[in-house]
Fold this sequence. Notes:
One of its GO terms (biological process) is proteolysis. This protein is an alpha+beta fold.
Amino acid sequence: MSVLDVQTNGFHQSEDPEMIPTEVLFGYPREQARLSPDGKFVAYLSPSPDQVSNVWVRPLDGKEEDAKMVTKENHRGCGYKDWYSAVDLALEAEPVPSLLSQIRWFLWNPSGEYIIYKQDGGGDEDWHHFAVDLASGDIRDLTPYDNVSSRLMPSSISGLRPYDMCFYMNIREKSDFDVYKINIKTGDVVLDTENPGDIQDWLCDSNFQVRGALQYHLSDGSSTIRVRDSVDSEWRDVLHWSSQEHGAMMGFASDPKKMYILSSLDSPTSRLVLINLEDGSVERVIASHPKCDVLGFRGDPSKVLFMDFRTKEYTAVAFAYDKLKWTVLHPRWVVTYEIDNGSAETYIYERSSKTMTLLFEHLPKLKQYKLGSMQPHVVKARDGLDILIYLTLPADVEPKNLPLVLRTHGGPWFRDWWGWDSEAQYFASRGYACLQVQYRGSDGFGKVFLHAGDKQWGAKMQNDITDSVLWTINQGIVDRERVAIGGISFGSFCSLAGAAFTPELYKCCVDLVGPTQMKTVTTKIVPYWKPKRKLLHDRVIDLENDDELNQQRSPFFHADKIQVPVIIAHGGNDIVVNPGESEQMFQALKDLNKPVTYLIYKDEGHWLERPQNKMDWFWRLEKLLHKQIGGKLGTPPPVTKSGAFLVYDSIGL
C-alpha cells in the first residue's frame, strides 16, 4: 500500500525545468555491455517495454531495433519472507507477493550459446543462477533450491569446457558453501568439494580442479591460503595473515605453482602480487599504491597496463608476452566512459583503426538537464587524520550558504566513489549540496585507516562526519541552519547518532535499513555469516562484555535526545540488518511522541532496488527536506506499483 498510487500515461515533468524527475534518475539504465566470445554480438542490460531490467542481445554490426530481449523478467516470482510476526505488526492489507529482483549481472558462456544471470527473491539474497539458451529461448534455473544461496566461481569459466562451471552453494549446511560442478547445457549438478566448515572462498585452476581455498580461523579472525597439487593430494598451508591484514585469492597463474593474490602483508595497502605456492614468497608485485588499496583486476594480470588518470600518462607497463602473441586478443573492445555530471557512454573500440563508435548512452534523458559536479576535498579531522569527502553542488548556483544533505555510506567497510551518483544528483537538482564522507574505517585507503575505525561506531567515526559538516559550514558553502543527515545501513546508524549526539547540527534525520543497537545488529545474522562474528567482535563491540559501550554509543538508547523529525524505512526481506532494528527505533521515538514516519518496503531487502520504490522513497524525502531545510519541491512522481507499506506517519509524508 502506497500513498503515492498515481496513474500516469505520460512522462512526469517537474514544474521546475532544472529538477530532474525521479524516473529519469532512478529508472533502469542501459549498462554492462559485453561482447560475445566470437565478437559478432553484444549483450547488455536495458529496460523492457514495461520498464523492467532485462538482458538484450543484438548483432554488433546491426541496429538498435535488431536487439532481442532474451530474459523474461517481469517482477513476478518467489514468495516473500514473512518477518512481520517477529515485530508484531498488524498489516491492514494483503502483503504483495515478493518479486524476483532486477537482473544486475550477467555473462556469456565461453561458447556464446548461453547467457548466465542471477537473481534473488525480492532482496532475500538467496541467489539463483539461470542459463538462457539463445537458440531456443529456454531459461533453466541452474540452482533450483529453496532457501539456498549460490555463487559462481569465476575461475571455473574456461573455453576448454564451455558448458561446465563451478558454483558455491549452502545446500548441505546453511553455514557452509560447498563446491558444485554444474553443466549449464544439461542442468546436471555434482557435489565436487565439501567445505570442512572454515572455508570462505575457493579457486579453480585451468584444468577445472578446485585447488585453492581461503581458510578463516574463527578463534582469532586470521586467514590462511591453502592449496593442493591435485584433487588427490592433501591440502597444505601456503600463506597466513592476521585479522589486522587483508588478503584474497585472485587466480592461479599459467604456471600452476603460482597464484595471484591481494595482500597487505609487508605493505601499508593491499597489493596485487604473484606468489610462489611452494613457500608463499612474493615473486613479483603486479600493482600497488602507497595510499590506496588495489581492490582487484580484470583480465590477465600477466599483462597489466597502468594509467595515472590525473595526467592521462601511462606510468607502468608490464608485458609477459611478446607482441607477436597479441593476435589472440579480440580486435574489438567494449569501453565505457564515465563522468560525474552526465550519463556514462559505452563505445566499441576498434583496435586496428583506434576508433570508437558509440554503442549507447546509459541514461540518455539526462542530456536535457543541468547536472552538478562532484568535488573531492581532504578535510582534517579533529585528531589530525585526513578524511576524503565528496561534495556535489547544484549546477549554476553560487556555492554559498546552501542547504546540505549529508549522505553517509554503509558498511562501514565500504566507500563512495567519485563519478556518477544518481542520489547526489537528485539532491543537487533540488538545490542542495550533497556531502559524502569517507570516515575512518572506510575501505580502500590502507589498513591503518581501516583499523582506525575499530570500535569507533558513534565515536571517532562520528566525529569525522561532524568535522566534515563543520568544514562545509566554515568554508561558507553551507548554511549552518539548514543541514539534514541521512544514510543507508551503517550510514543510518551514523544518521541517528548524529541526530542524538549533535542535535544542534541537524534539522531532520533519514534512516534507511539502519542498525540502531551495536549488540542486536551483530547477534542477529544469517548462518553463513558466522565468520563475521569475530570481525564484528574486533571492529564493533565485544558481544559478551560491552553492555556499557553499547548503551553509550547506540542511538536507540538516546532517542530522547533527538529533537528533529526522523523518517525510517526497511526492506521486508533484509537479511543483512534485521528489520527489528528499525522497528525498535521507531517504537522508541513513537513512545516519546517524537515526529517520526515509518515504512516497510515489503518487496525489498537491504537496499531499495525497484524504481517504483525508489521514486516513492525519494518523494517522501523531497517533502521532508523541503519542509525542514527549504529546498525545491516538485510534483509527485508516477508511482503505480510501490511495495511501500506506511506503518506510521506523524510528520505528514
